[in-house]
Amino acid sequence: MAGKNLYLGVGILIIIILLAGVFMMQGGEEQATQTGETTPAAGQTQEQTQAQETQQEAKTETQTEAQAGGEVETLVIGAPLSLSGKYAKEGEMSLMGALAAVKWINDNGGITVNGKKYMLEFKYYDDESNPDRVTSIVERLITQDGVKFLLAPYSSGLTAKAAPVAERYGALMLSHGGASDKIFQQGYDYLVQILTPASRYFTSVLDMVKAIDPQAKTVAIVYKENEFSRTVAEGAKAYAEKLGFEVVYFQSYPADAQDLTPVLQPLKDLQPDVIIGGGHFADGQLLARQINELGIKAKLVGILVAPALPDFYKNLGEAAEGIVYPSQWEPGVTFSPETTPQGYEWYGPTVEEFIKYFKEVAKERGKGDIMPSYHAADAAAAILFLAKAIEQANSLNPDDVRQAMNDLALFTFYGKLKIDPETGLQIGHDMIVGQWQNGKKVIVWPKEAAQAEPLYPKP
Amino acid sequence: MVDVGLVVANLVYGLLIGIIYGIATVGLNMIFGVLKIVNVGHGAFIMVGAYVTLLLFTLAGVTPPLTIVASMAVGIGLGLLFYYLVIKYLVDAPELATLLATFAIGVLLQEIVKAFMGADSRGFTWNLGNIEIAGVSVALSKVIAAILSIALLGFLYLVIYRTKLGLAIRAVVQDKEGAMVVGVDVDRIYAISFALGIMVTVASGSILAMYLQSGIHPYMGEIYTLKGFVIAVMAGLGSIPGAFIAGILFGLFENLSYVALQSIEGIQPLVLTRSIAFLLLLIILLVKPSGLFQR
After folding, report:
1. Counting one residue from A and one from B, how many pairs have CB atoms under 8 Å apart?
2. β-pairing verdict for A345-346 and A410-412
3. A372 secondary structure, DSSP code
4. B147: Cβ–Cβ under 8 A, 6 or more apart, which residues?
5. Chain A partners of B17 at a C-beta cutoff of 8 Å?
6. A60-64 contacts at long range (C-beta below 8 A, 24 or more positions apart)
7. Cβ-contact A355, A331 below 8 angstroms
8. CB A335 within 8 A of CB A329
9. A97 and A165 share a domain?
């Protein structure tokens, strides 16, 4: 009897595990090309996957051949992206942004290298926000899929994992979600940054406070304990002190903190004029909520990452009102071919075009009618910068393309793009400042790009 | 050196979060006490409860305290479902089988929720204003969450110590064969105990959601599985009131060690509190390996 029950139990156990596996694959292991037809599952053997990939590639080629009479080749850009796990939100945005840029480039004739036309294809795997997955995916993209140009994964932590692998194989990697400065101090030759580095994240916010309220004196900084947020916090601290502020509180909280009350409690007595900090999405929400709950009054509350996403207001309601955030990009920016600064060259879609392409991609992926966040724009800008550099280099050799990037000064829907030749650090792009006003995000700084006056002091 | 106001504030908040930790561990310990099964999927059930509250509140406008009733019903349903589907066949199986099975159930729940709700971190706002406790301003919703935790514990206590069913449960815990001899249907008692344990766990998820009102996502339970194990081991596996008290101690210790660490220059206190909590666990295990409240 007991033996029979045991067999039955083990049988059911196996079924449950299989079921769980199926669900994990649905959301977790997503792999697709730009056309997105097939989704091979995690548990498949290598032969199966390879067989499918060959089929897939064959399909893409015939399609493009039919389109352009056999003259066109395919250039694959690869990426590990976080489509599940803690960065699922940002990862999905990055993916859709990259796909939108790829689509724009292909619709506008692809890229030309040595007189040959290339259509771009974007190949990505879900890294589950997991550092170990990132390294194996980058390796797989380079060695098995033969990819020479890569987008980095989302977040500085994952980018730091991916960079040494790309470096080892000499594949060129563009960081669109890794704003950390430190990664670029390691001497990597094949890593290039697209977004504003972390150390400059809060400079525009502090500049704004200085400009509209010279009386503001004290700054409190509360940040998530990880590489990215620490660099932001330290950069902000240095810059605040340079501007003449006094940093009265400088504390961090653990990455998976569920309750920030102990860290925030002292702010009730300190009553700083400015509170800045945060980390990523979940903890940024928590920070805003608990500052409000504890009744901490500050003239300005600036939080990283989280307020830039539309869900922020949906989840927080009133508590979100007046919260300020630095942003790499917002859909309301006014960069256009006409406003291209001296020494820069316009390339890529206009802001409106980008939003249009993004919405198409979002619809295809079943995300409904949503606007791109700055994560999407970061990834799209990376694709544009890469495509332009490949054309400029007139070569598919990563070394030549990296060389060409040094002389590139692009102006795009995303703003300025220019890298430091030595380190690959982004030196062209500047942050803008956004704020939640009456349930809407508006750009309040810099003045040239502002849609509204800053709400100051915060209600 | 140490700010008294800050200590009091952390005492109050430590007590409140401790009560939540306590109720969130009771179900884990109850299931172990009766069935001798470690529910590795514990946190996933907490997550389910948080989603019940989130959805009922945001979609139907049900006030969060009432959603606990719905969570209890969901908990009993899930408990019976998984008992008769899986656990029933594994009660006497090797430990590894139950660990794997409950882990799989946890992953299954996470991925089902993710398939329907997405991986976004969600929250809601249920603001009742603040009240003063010992001079510390606390959101009323947090106080209500703590009171409901105690009520839920009281309910469980009544079921176990004041009903015939509870008597049967306790009989099975003491002597399974003996209970069988006097006519207790052990399989049924297992089913009910498992369902009760899951019920408390899912309901604690609702309470947690009410307390934090943010950070609700499919993987939110993992940290509570971890903390739940620490608290359960602290209390002594199987003890229900012990788990609750150990939860409160854990919450207080976490928050107070923060104040202590804060007075040391050049370290980041909140990051270290967790290692301090585990250090506490280590000391307890060295001094009293059976846990604080185990006979």
Report:
1. 154
2. parallel
3. -
4. none
5. 259, 261
6. A60/A33, A60/A34, A60/A35, A60/A121, A63/A35, A64/A119
7. yes
8. no
9. yes
Report which residue type is found at A353.
E
Spatial distance between the Cα atoms of B256 and B7, rounded to a whole number of angstroms: 7
Amino acid at B69: V
Contact A258 B223 (CB under 8 A): yes
With pLDDT > 70 as the criterion, what percentage of chain B qualifies? 99
For residues B239 and B247, the answer to whether their CB atoms sit within 8 Å is no
Distance from CA of B194 to the nearest CA of A (A): 17
What kind and span of H or E run contains B143? helix B140-162
Q: Do A26 and B111 touch (CB under 8 A)?
A: yes
In a domain, A259, yes or no: yes
ipTM of the complex model: 0.72
Residues A152 and A251 in one domain: no
Q: Which range marks the domain in which residue A271 is found?
A: 200-327+432-449
Each of the 459 residues of chain A gets a pLDDT tens digit; together they read 445 566 666 666 666 666 665 555 444 433 333 333 333 333 344 444 444 444 444 334 333 444 444 578 999 999 999 998 888 888 999 999 999 999 999 999 999 999 999 999 999 999 999 999 999 999 999 999 999 999 999 988 899 999 999 999 999 999 998 877 888 888 999 999 999 998 889 998 999 999 999 999 999 999 998 878 888 999 999 999 999 999 999 988 887 777 888 889 889 889 999 999 998 888 898 999 999 888 898 999 999 988 988 788 888 888 899 999 998 898 888 888 888 888 999 999 999 999 999 999 999 999 989 999 889 999 999 999 999 999 999 999 999 999 999 999 999 999 889 999 999 999 888 899 999 999 999 999 877 678 889 998 888
Query: What pLDDT is stored for residue A63 in this prediction?
Result: 38
- Cis amide prior to A457 (ω within 30 degrees): yes
A214 and A315 part of one domain: yes
Give yes or no: residues A379 and A404 share one domain.
yes
Give me the domain span that covers residue B123.
4-287
CA distance B11 to chain A (A): 10
Number of domains in chain B: 1
The residue with tokens 């301090």 is: B276
Question: For residue A112, what are its two tokens?
Answer: 């030309």
Do A248 and A382 fall within a single domain? no
Instruction: Give the CATH number of the domain where residue A188 resides.
Output: 3.40.50.2300
B293 occurs within a structural domain:
no
Which is nearest to A304 in space by CA: A405, A224, A424?
Answer: A224
Cβ of A10 within 8 Å of Cβ of B115? The answer is no
Q: In angstroms, what separates the C-alpha of B185 from chain A's closest C-alpha? A: 17
Distances (CA, A) of B95 to B91, B92, B101, B173, B177: 9, 8, 10, 18, 20
pTM (2 d.p.) = 0.70
Of B88, B115, B123, the CB nearest to A23: B115
Domain of B266, CATH number, reads 1.10.3470
Is the domain of A297 the same as that of A437? yes
Q: A440: which strand partners?
A: A437
Asked if residue A291 and residue A424 are part of one domain, the reply reads no
Q: Which helix (H) or strand (E) holds B287?
A: helix B269-287
Q: What is the rounded CA–CA span in Å between residue B10 and residue A38?
A: 53
Helical segments of B2-139, H only? 4-35, 42-60, 64-85, 95-117
Question: B133: which strand partners?
Answer: B136
The total domain count for chain A is 2
Q: What is the pLDDT of residue A53?
A: 43
Contact criterion met (CB below 8 Å) for A422 and A411: no
